[in-house]
């Protein structure tokens, strides 16, 4: 007997608290919360909910959800769109695949180049959307093609030429979202690749507050400088707003000490911007997305 196709509404919940789905561990409820089991189920969900605003989440890093929550639908790819495979030297990963998993799969399969992804706490979909990078590399350098989905649930194949690619930026003229990426890394040695991954992770552990509730780098690096250096030079390490604190280990990270709400974090972001601007004339631009309603 053939198993029935998953229903589009099988994983829909209402009023789901988003604090459980963000790495800052803050955020109010989503009106509609959906983890798509397959791209086909996602297509059906989108086609059936055309009037709802959409917010996309992966692992919930790089995002600050306000305490009042999100009106409309939140689509969470992590835990759902997790396909990962290798065909003829091309690695295809669906949007919900964690970047460390993609990095390990690439190295263990005998390919080199994606090791830098091992230290980024996000998913393939989010990484494609913001051209995530580390150690001087960025994910779009390795993209052969992507699959996108539009508001009507239609899936298309796109290439790099269809996007404007830049620093922490990948923009399309269409309203569409990434559901998979196909990557063509260079041939490599599995043992050497895993060694490079261990080096990336060791560096991250030395320089970032990895054992804390945070969302990754808060601000984009301004041209020719680093946001963390500017924040540290302004004497802001340890600056606190409620339960939100500027990390003593890396000044471009804000930590939730376990008592913060989203409003604490947002106020601290604004204080950092104001004080760095007053000192240097540079207005730091947030790298994190700030979404949802305030209480």
Poorly predicted sequence stretches spanning 5 or more consecutive residues:
1-8
- CATH architecture grouping of the largest domain: 2-Layer Sandwich
Secondary-structure element pattern, one letter each: EEHEEEEEHEHEEEEEEEEHHEEEHE
Strand content: 25-35%
Can you offer a commentary on this structure?
It contains six helices and 20 strands. It has 295 residues and is of the alpha+beta class. The protein folds into three domains: 12-76, 2-Layer Sandwich (Uridine Diphospho-n-acetylenolpyruvylglucosamine Reductase, domain 2); 84-207, Uridine Diphospho-n-acetylenolpyruvylglucosamine Reductase, domain 3 (2-Layer Sandwich); 227-291, UDP-N-acetylenolpyruvoylglucosamine reductase, C-terminal domain (Uridine Diphospho-n-acetylenolpyruvylglucosamine Reductase, domain 1), CATH 3.90.78. The strands form seven sheets. It has a five-stranded antiparallel β-sheet with strand order 6-7-15-11-12, sandwiched between helices. A four-stranded mixed β-sheet has the order 1-2-5-3, with no helix packed on it. It has a three-stranded antiparallel β-sheet with strand order 17-18-19. α2 (99-108) runs antiparallel to α4 (190-207). The longest helix has 19 residues, at 262-280. The chain is globular, with a radius of gyration of 19 Å. It starts with 11 loop residues before the first strand and ends with a strand.
């Amino acid at each position: 007997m053939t198993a029935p196709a998953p229903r589009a509404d099988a994983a829909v919940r209402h009023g789901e608290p988003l604090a459980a789905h963000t790495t800052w561990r803050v955020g109010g409820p989503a009106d509609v919360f959906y983890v798509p089991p397959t791209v086909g189920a996602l297509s059906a969900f989108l086609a059936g909910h055309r009037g709802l605003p959409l917010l996309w989440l992966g692992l919930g890093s790089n995002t600050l959800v306000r305490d009042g929550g999100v009106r409309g639908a939140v689509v969470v790819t992590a835990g759902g769109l997790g396909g990962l495979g290798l065909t003829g030297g091309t690695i295809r990963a669906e949007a919900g695949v964690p970047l460390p998993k993609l990095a390990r799969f690439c190295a263990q399969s005998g390919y080199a180049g994606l090791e830098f992804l091992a230290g980024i706490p996000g998913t393939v979909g989010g990484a494609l959307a913001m051209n995530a990078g580390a150690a001087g590399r960025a994910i779009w350098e390795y993209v052969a093609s992507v699959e996108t989905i539009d508001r009507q649930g239609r899936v298309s194949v796109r290439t790099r030429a269809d996007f404007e690619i830049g620093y922490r930026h990948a923009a399309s003229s269409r309203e569409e979202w990434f559901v998979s990426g196909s990557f063509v890394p260079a041939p490599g040695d599995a043992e050497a690749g895993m060694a490079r991954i261990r080096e990336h992770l060791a560096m991250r552990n030395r320089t970032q507050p990895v054992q804390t509730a945070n969302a990754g780098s808060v601000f984009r690096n301004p041209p020719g400088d680093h946001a963390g250096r500017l924040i540290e030079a302004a004497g802001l390490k340890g600056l606190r707003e409620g339960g939100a604190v500027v990390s003593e280990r890396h000044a471009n990270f804000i930590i939730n000490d376990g008592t913060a709400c989203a409003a604490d974090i947002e106020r601290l972001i604004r204080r950092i911007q104001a004080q760095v601007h007053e000192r240097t004339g540079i207005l730091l631009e947030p790298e994190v997305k700030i979404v949802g309603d305030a209480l």
